[in-house]
Design brief:
This protein has about 230 residues and is of the alpha/beta class. It has a single domain, classed as Rossmann fold (3-Layer(aba) Sandwich). It contains 10 helices and 8 strands. Strands 3-2-1-4-5-6-7-8 form an 8-stranded mixed beta sheet, sandwiched between helices. About 40% of the residues are buried.
Length: about 230
């Protein structure tokens, strides 16, 4: 049994929390508004869940999922996350996050920004390129013929091995992109951003489709930098 912590409990956070509870793990939820605002979600998730503050989550959980708007990444507690595996789901949307020069000129990635801010943590990129409703419905037991894969990226091999085991527990295979610097391959507007999991890429609400690791590998290889794609 693992203890998952969530800094941010929106669509992706609550979906991953549900998958973790379904797998028999415990979850600790937090947001920027206070634990009392999460009572409805905690009740929905059941006895394996409770709410806390972000600092309490960072202290108590075995692994911590950071799933907040990128513009707020400096609000993540640093000291409490020392030595811990941190799962980063964040994407860069300039219209929401404001312009971030080092991302605009592509000299770094969102997860590398978070890793720089958390120098003593082990950041792994995951869950950023799948629609939350697809994530909720595509989980399958290990060995299922229609089991789906998710991408990860990270600089620490042990952290990636742990995340691979956690993904297996909640119903997913893993495709490893490599170091954090390769996380750009699944960022917004790339070939591997979200639409591959949709049965109809023009209408994501029409339903999901399972994607295998080899397909993810091809999509990641086909990804283009913004400067090379005119975005």
């Amino acid at each position: 049994m693992a203890s998952w912590g969530f800094i941010g409990s929106g669509n992706i956070g609550s979906t991953v929390a549900q998958l973790a509870v379904n797998a028999g793990d415990t979850v600790i939820l937090s947001n920027s508004r206070g634990p009392e605002t999460l009572s409805e979600l905690v009740a929905k998730l059941g006895t394996g869940a409770h709410a806390a503050t972000p600092r309490e989550v960072a202290t108590e959980a075995d692994v911590v999922v950071v799933t907040i708007p990128l513009k707020n990444y400096r609000d993540v507690p640093v000291d409490e996350l020392r030595g811990k595996v941190v799962l980063d789901t964040m994407n860069y949307y300039p219209q929401r996050d404001g312009q971030i020069a080092e991302l605009d000129d592509e000299r770094t990635t969102t997860s590398e920004l978070l890793q720089e801010f958390l120098p003593d943590s082990k950041v792994v990129k995951v869950f950023n390129n799948i629609y939350f409703e697809h994530l909720a419905s595509l989980a399958r037991p290990s060995g299922a013929p229609d089991r789906c894969a998710l991408t990860i990226a990270g600089d620490n091999a042990e952290a990636k091995a742990l995340v691979t085991k956690l993904l297996d527990r909640i119903g997913y295979d893993t495709y490893d992109l490599g170091p954090l610097a390769e996380g750009w391959r699944t960022q917004r507007d790339t070939a591997a951003y979200g639409k591959q999991y949709a049965a109809d890429p023009a209408n994501w609400s029409a339903g999901p489709r399972a994607v295998k690791a080899d397909e993810l590998a091809g999509l990641a290889a086909a990804a283009k930098r913004y400067r090379d794609s005119g975005l």
